[in-house]
């Protein structure tokens, strides 16, 4: 997730456990070959973050070979093609969801990517622009036929707000059409949501979005409760998680990046508190990391979990 699933948060996820596969935020394929991976906030990673899938934002097949070459050098464990991002700027570039609207372009991209790597090659899609089962079926089967190994589905239409109840039942349909594993995404914030989602769609796995930013221990809880993983119930102290996050971003990112990343994270993490909007607005209004740290400490003193 852009601005969120960088190395700091991924390390926190890994610390709690229960994650089968981590992912980077979306990475512009055409910029990848010239990025310096030791300082780029998008590419910095540690050995703790494994296995790690790199998500590519790509608009033409010409961008694929150099990007995949860069990902091989970065020792990616898997490569994901973003075909679901509805952002206007991304759409204008021809990437993200625009690829679902241009299936032949998407096909050329998948063919080129399949030719270029033996790593697991996955794709992430949305449902479509509207209820059109036939078009969706053709798109999904095209991905499978051209060599996609696993498909993640954000169960909402292009223009649907994140607040809308996801349409998990469509994931069940997609599963019927395909032989490759299908991963369900959208609206999983609790163990109960995960159970409900699996009951409705029978997906082969779950991808957590915002729920994992609110509760970075959610993977561990779901892995223990639903997948019988031998994981000790996570002991969670919200101030400890938050301060850990601050320490990691201070360690990993240049000063100009830190506050922005903290604000993004806080926007979601504050949802753990009844009066979380106070934490969020105080951090949004902070001018420095020091000020943000002090404001957060004061908030934690007055608000227990
Ligand atoms: C701030 C933000 C950034 C996101 N960035 C990405 C991204 O880089 N790549 C991607 O595939 N999806 C991205 N998404 C979409 C999420 O991965 C996920 O599909 C969506 O939030 C629905 O899942 P959820 O309801 O569990 O949050 C982003 C969502 C948000 C809110």
List the helices and strands and how they pair.
Elements: H1 7-16, E1 22-28, E2 52-57, H2 64-73, E3 78-83, H3 88-93, H4 98-101, H5 103-116, E4 121-126, H6 133-145, E5 150-154, H7 168-177, E6 182-185, H8 191-201, E7 205-207, H9 210-214, H10 218-227, H11 238-252, H12 255-269, H13 276-284, H14 289-302
Parallel strand pairs: 1-2, 2-3, 3-4, 4-5, 5-6, 6-7
Bound molecules: flavin mononucleotide.
CATH architecture of the largest domain: Alpha-Beta Barrel
Structure summary, number of beta strands: 7
The helix-and-strand class reads alpha/beta
Percent of sequence in beta strands = 5-15%
N-to-C span: 26 Å
As for the CATH topology of the largest domain, it is TIM Barrel
Work out the helix count. Answer: 14
Spatial strand arrangement across the major sheet: 1-2-3-4-5-6-7
Series of secondary-structure elements, N-terminal to C-terminal: HEEHEHHHEHEHEHEHHHHHH
Structural domain count: 2
Let me know the average pLDDT. Answer: 96
Kindly provide the name of the CATH class of the largest domain: Alpha Beta
Q: Could you tell me which ligands this complex binds, including any ions or cofactors?
A: flavin mononucleotide
Rg value: 19 Å
Low-confidence stretches: none
Biggest pleated-sheet summary: 7 strands, parallel
- What's the overall geometry? globular
What does this protein look like?
The chain has helices at 7-16, 64-73, 88-93, 98-101, 103-116, 133-145, 168-177, 191-201, 210-214, 218-227, 238-252, 255-269, 276-284, 289-302, and strands spanning 22-28, 52-57, 78-83, 121-126, 150-154, 182-185, 205-207. Strand 6 (182-185), helix 8 and strand 7 (205-207) form a beta-alpha-beta unit. The two termini are 26 Å apart. Strands 1-2-3-4-5-6-7 form a 7-stranded parallel β-sheet. The relative contact order is 0.11. It has 305 residues and is of the alpha/beta class. The protein contains 14 helices and 7 strands. Helix 12 runs antiparallel to helix 13. It folds into 2 domains: 7-227, Aldolase class I (TIM Barrel, Alpha-Beta Barrel); 238-302. The longest helix has 15 residues, at 238-252. The protein is 48% helix and 12% strand. The mean pLDDT is 96. The site of flavin mononucleotide has 21 residues, from strand 1 and helix 9.
């Amino acid at each position: 997730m852009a601005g969120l699933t960088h190395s700091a948060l991924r390390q926190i996820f890994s610390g709690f456990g229960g994650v089968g596969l981590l992912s980077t935020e979306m990475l512009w394929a055409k910029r990848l070959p010239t990025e310096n991976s030791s300082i780029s906030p998008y590419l910095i990673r540690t050995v703790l973050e494994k296995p790690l899938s790199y998500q590519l934002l790509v608009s033409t097949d010409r961008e694929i070979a150099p990007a995949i070459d860069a990902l091989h050098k970065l020792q990616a464990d898997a490569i994901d093609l973003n075909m679901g991002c509805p952002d206007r700027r991304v759409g204008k570039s021809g990437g993200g969801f625009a690829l679902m609207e241009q299936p032949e372009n998407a096909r050329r991209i998948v063919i080129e990517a399949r030719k270029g790597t033996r790593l697991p090659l996955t794709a992430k899609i949305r449902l479509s622009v509207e209820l059109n089962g036939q078009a969706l079926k053709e798109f999904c089967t095209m991905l499978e036929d051209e060599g996609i190994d696993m498909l993640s589905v954000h169960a909402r239409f292009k223009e649907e707000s994140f607040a809308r109840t996801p349409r998990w039942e469509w994931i069940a349909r997609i599963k019927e059409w395909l032989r490759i594993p299908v991963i369900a995404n959208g609206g999983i914030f609790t163990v109960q949501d995960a159970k409900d989602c699996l009951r409705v769609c029978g997906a082969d796995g779950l991808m957590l979005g915002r729920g994992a930013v609110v509760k970075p221990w959610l993977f561990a809880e779901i892995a223990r409760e639903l997948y019988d993983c031998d994981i000790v119930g996570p002991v969670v102290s919200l101030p400890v998680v938050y301060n850990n996050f601050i320490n990691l971003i201070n360690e990993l990112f240049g000063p100009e990046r830190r506050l922005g990343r903290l604000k993004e994270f806080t926007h979601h993490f504050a949802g753990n508190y009844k009066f979380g909007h106070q934490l969020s607005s105080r951090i949004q209004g902070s001018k420095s990391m020091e000020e943000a740290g002090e404001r957060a400490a004061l908030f934690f003193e007055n608000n227990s979990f």
